[in-house]
């Protein structure tokens, strides 16, 4: 069993898995696995199925049911909250947990309005292997594993110590000595079989530890576990299309097998042997894994297959003709005009191809056939192509799609600078000059306004003692002020008058 869990970044960013035990976290991730590709808003598990994918080993059903019940209780307590300028929304993701003790099933209802948090499998989702997750013994290992998978392409993750405590639900009473003993040491032990390299670096600010950095090397390309000979597992009546689908799902981890994949592969099978198509898929997978410039390798592989812009090699199995004849006999219906892979290898030319029989003259011929387009037209062609790929495939990684376009499509176009009509150029120059004149006039007017302000200030009257009403120079009892008291009063009145600028 090698299930892959994918979940929306909103699910990770909005949700803090507080007070969950290790087994309860396994149940939660197992549920996510079951509903990830389902269009239904309700899923049913048998107890045996749930035990298997959540790595539950205790044979006591009472303990199992109790653990399910506690998981349900904590899930109900997890309330999502979204807020914008117009509204506040609060909800639970799993409103119903139905445990049937007699039938030994669990029925889970997903919130229909927000099911996209688990169901919409685009590149906006993160993914990790459920088997790795459930094999971890410590709940702290599981929570950290989820965090590290968000940064699996960078190979490191830095936490402020406060964020680290919150993300891993570490008790407030734990001091660093407790964290080292009860959190970090179990994590190091758990991660030995997950990461080929794992390192904990404590970053200090003075004497205190301010941050923790985790360096790790992770590869999602792991050997597929073979329980028994695949030929014995696959029903003889499943047919080549079904066998190819099963091969695809079990051989290429992290790639979502969609209806579009099914259509493309079935068309290829109509004119190619099963073994030939398998080798074709394997070559594309190896190529995508070896390209260090690609971050999301499963998505890139998917685009290669769906876009039919693959790296085509000059391989031809010894039994190709025999296999091809055998496949055509088994699939005599629905033959269409789709090129075989051999024809495609002779026909298609892309930057990624490595073929010995391409001559310099052929390459020059391709260059001469370029279409002249303006930069604006080229950008529109590029965007339309990317939009089409997003609609037809599960790949929404803009950077990957741009890389594929640049490699496979850009050579078809020659971006030119359009010639400018002389009259239009003169008109443009005239408009530029008029704009300059208008700007100078604006600056001149601003200078005039500033000069006027200066002149107005010069006209402001400066008040003296003669301007003060004698009635103001008396005490509260009405007596005429004299000496120092009179002088202080005069200075105060003059100060106020000159500030206002009025008499």
Explain what the structure shows.
Pfam families: Rep3_C, Rep3_N. It comes from Fusobacterium animalis F0419. Residues 423-460 form a coiled coil. GO terms for molecular function: DNA-directed DNA polymerase activity. Residues 5-148 form the Initiator Rep protein WH1 domain. The chain is α+β, with helices and mostly antiparallel strands. It folds into four domains: 1-135, Arc Repressor Mutant, subunit A (Orthogonal Bundle); 136-220, Arc Repressor Mutant, subunit A; 241-370, no CATH class; 465-500, no CATH class. Helices cover 51% and strands 13% of the residues. It contains 21 helices and twelve strands. The chain has helices at residues 9-14, 22-35, 47-53, 61-77, 116-119, 130-135, 139-149, 161-167, 176-190, 230-233, 239-251, 259-270, 274-290, 297-307, 320-330, 341-347, 360-368, 375-392, 398-408, 422-458, 483-500, and strands at 4-8, 42-46, 80-83, 88-91, 96-100, 105-109, 125-129, 156-160, 197-205, 208-217, 371-374, 413-416. It has a three-stranded antiparallel beta sheet with strand order 2-6-5. Strand 3 and strand 4 form a beta hairpin. Helix 11 (239-251) packs across helix 12 (259-270), helix 11 (239-251) packs parallel to helix 13 and helix 18 packs across helix 19. Residues 119-127, 221-237, 308-321 and 330-368 have low confidence and may be disordered.
């Amino acid at each position: 069993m090698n299930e892959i869990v994918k979940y929306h970044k909103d699910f990770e960013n909005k949700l803090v898995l507080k007070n969950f035990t290790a087994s309860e976290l396994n149940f939660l991730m197992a549920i996510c696995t079951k509903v990830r590709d389902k269009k239904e808003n309700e899923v049913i598990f048998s107890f045996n199925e749930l035990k298997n994918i959540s790595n539950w080993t205790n044979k006591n059903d009472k303990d199992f049911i109790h653990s399910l019940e506690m998981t349900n209780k904590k899930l109900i307590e997890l309330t999502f909250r979204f807020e914008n300028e117009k509204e506040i929304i609060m909800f639970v993701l799993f409103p119903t947990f139905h445990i049937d003790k007699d039938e030994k099933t669990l029925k889970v209802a997903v919130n229909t309005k927000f099911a996209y948090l688990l169901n919409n499998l685009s590149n906006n989702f993160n993914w990790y292997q459920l088997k790795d997750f459930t094999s971890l013994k410590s709940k702290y290992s599981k929570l950290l594993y989820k965090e590290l998978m968000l940064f699996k392409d960078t190979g490191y993750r830095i936490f402020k110590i406060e964020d680290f405590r919150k993300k891993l639900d570490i008790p407030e009473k734990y001091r660093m000595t407790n964290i080292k003993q009860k959190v970090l040491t179990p994590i190091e032990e758990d991660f030995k079989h997950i990461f080929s390299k794992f390192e904990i670096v404590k970053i200090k600010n003075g004497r205190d530890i301010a941050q923790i950095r985790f360096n790790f090397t992770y590869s999602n390309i792991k050997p597929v576990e073979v329980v028994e000979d695949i030929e014995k597992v696959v029903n003889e009546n499943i047919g080549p299309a079904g066998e190819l689908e099963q091969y695809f799902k079990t051989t290429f981890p992290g790639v979502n097998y969609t209806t579009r994949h099914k259509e493309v592969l079935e068309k290829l099978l109509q004119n190619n042997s099963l073994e030939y198509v398998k080798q074709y898929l394997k070559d594309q997978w190896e190529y995508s894994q070896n390209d260090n410039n690609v971050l999301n390798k499963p998505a890139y592989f998917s685009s290669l297959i769906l876009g039919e812009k693959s790296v085509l090699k000059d391989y031809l199995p010894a039994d190709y003709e025999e296999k091809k004849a055998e496949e055509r006999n088994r699939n005599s219906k629905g033959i269409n005009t789709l090129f075989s892979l051999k024809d495609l290898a002779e026909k298609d030319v892309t930057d990624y191809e490595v073929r010995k029989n391409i001559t310099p003259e052929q390459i020059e011929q391709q260059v001469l056939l370029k279409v002249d387009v303006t930069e604006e037209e080229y950008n529109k062609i590029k965007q339309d192509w990317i939009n089409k790929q997003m609609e037809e495939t599960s790949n929404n990684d803009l950077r990957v799609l741009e890389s594929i376009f640049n490699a496979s499509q850009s050579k078809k176009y020659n971006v030119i600078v359009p010639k400018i009509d002389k009259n239009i150029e003169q008109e443009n120059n005239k408009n530029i000059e008029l704009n300059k004149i208008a700007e100078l006039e604006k600056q001149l007017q601003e200078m005039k306004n500033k000069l006027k302000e200066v002149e107005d200030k010069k006209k402001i009257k400066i008040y003296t003692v003669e301007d003060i009403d004698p009635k103001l120079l008396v005490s509260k009892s009405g007596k005429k002020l004299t000496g120092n008291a009179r002088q202080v009063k005069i200075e105060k009145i003059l100060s106020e008058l000159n500030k206002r600028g009025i008499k």
